[in-house]
From TrEMBL:
Source organism: Planomonospora corallina
Domain of life: Bacteria
Transmembrane segments: 21-42, 69-92, 112-131, 151-172
Record has Isomerase as a keyword: no
Protein name (database record): DUF2254 domain-containing protein
Keyword Transmembrane helix: yes
Keywords per UniProt: Membrane, Transmembrane, Transmembrane helix
Amino acid sequence: MTARRSPQRPSVSGDTWRTRLWPLPTAGVITACLLGIGLPLVDANVIGALPARVTAYLFSGGPQAARTVLSAIAGSLITVTSLTFSLTVVTLQLASSQYSPRLLRTFARDRFVHVTLALLLTTFTYALTVLRAVRASLEDQSAFVPQLSVTVAYLLALVSVVALVVFLAHLARQIRVESLLDSVRTEAAQTMRRCADDRTGTALAPAIPETGTVPLCAVSSGFLTSVDEEALLRAAVDTGTVVVLDRLPGDWVVVGTPIAVAWPLAGGTSGLDRQDVDALSHHLAGAVRTGFERTSEQDIAFGLRQIVDVATKALSPGINDPTTALHALGHAAALLCEAAGEDLGPLLLHDGSGRVRTVVPRPGFPALLDLALSQPRRYGAAEPEVIGRLFMLLGEVAWSARRSEHRAAIHDQLLRLRATVDRQDYDHSERARMEDLALAVQAALTGRWTYEASRRP
C-alpha cells in the first residue's frame, strides 16, 4: 500500500484539545495544589539549613504578615482572572457578531489565552493552598511560616501581573481584523500544502461502473472533519474492492445517507456479498470522522470560507464596512494564488500493485475560485470598489495560473463578473474603470500582460 501521510499533519485529538479552554488551566490548578502541599514540607525540613545569604532574599515576616500577603495575592488574582475571562468572552462575542462565527475557533485555540488563564488560576490556587500551612504560635503548637513557599507565591504574583499586561496587548492585536485574516490565511495555506503533499500522482480517478456498485452510508451526522486514508485503503485491499468517497472534508453528512460507493476490483455485475459490505461499512465508520464544527485538519476550503465570511459580513447593511471586505479579498487573492500553484485534485490511494483502490475527493481550484468570488460578487455588486477588487483578484490569480483548467475557470469567472457589471447602475467613469480592469485580466490570461494594462486608472 502506498498511502502517504504528511508527518506534520495534526491529529484529530490534538486539534480538539487545542480548541478547548479548560485543559491547560485545569492542569495548572492540579499542579498548584500539589506544589502548595509539598513546598511547605520542604520549608519545614530545609529552611533552617539554608545559608544567611539565601534566606536574606526570602520572606521574613511573621504568620500574620504571611497570611496578609497570601490573602492579598489570592484575592487579587481571582479578580484579575474574572477580568481576563470577561475580556475573552467579550472578544469572542465581538468576533462572532462583527466578523464571522467561524472565527471563534481561532480565538479558542489561542495559546496566549490558555497560558494566561492557567498562570492566573495556578497562582490563585497555590496562594490559597499555602495559606492553610501558615500557623500562629499557640500553647499546643509553634509558629510556622513557610518562607520559601510565600516567596514563590510572591514571584508567581509578579509573573501574573506581567502576563496580564502581555495578554491585554495580545488581545488588542488579535481583535483587529487584519490579524484575524492573516492568522486564518496562514493556517489555510498550511492545510493546503499538507493536502497537496499527500497527492500520490497525477493518475485519473477510476470511473464508477453502472452496475455492481454498493452505497456505503454515514453512521453519524455532522461535518466531515477528516478521513483516515490508510484505514480506508486497508479496508479496500482486504475486501478486494475500490472505494470512492463522494463527500468533501467540510461537507455536512446525515446518518443513514450514502457518502461513498464501492465495487469489486475484478469487476462484474454480481456486486459484493453481504460480508464484504458489512466489513466495508465497519471500516468506513472508523475511517470517516464527523464533528459538530468544521476544522482545518483536511478541510482545504475552510480557511477560504472564513475569509469570505468576513467579506460578506462587512458588506451587510448592518455592518457596512467595504474597506474590511477589500482587505479580506486581498487575503483571498493571496490564498488563491498559492492554490494555483498546488495540485489540489482528489487524493488517489494505490495498492502495492499501483492500482487505484481509494479515492478521497478534495476541492479543486475552480471550486475554490467560485467560493471566493460568488458571494462577494453578489452582495457587493452595487459597490464599484468591491467589484473592482474582484477584477484585480482575477488578474492576480491569472498571473499565477499555469494550467489550462485554471485559466478556463478564471475566464468563466471573468464573464460572470462582467455580466454583474452590466446589470448595475454605474456611471460612465466607473464602467470605464471596470472595463480596463477586465482587459487587464484578459491580458494576464493570454500572456500579454503590460504595466499599462494592469495599472489602476
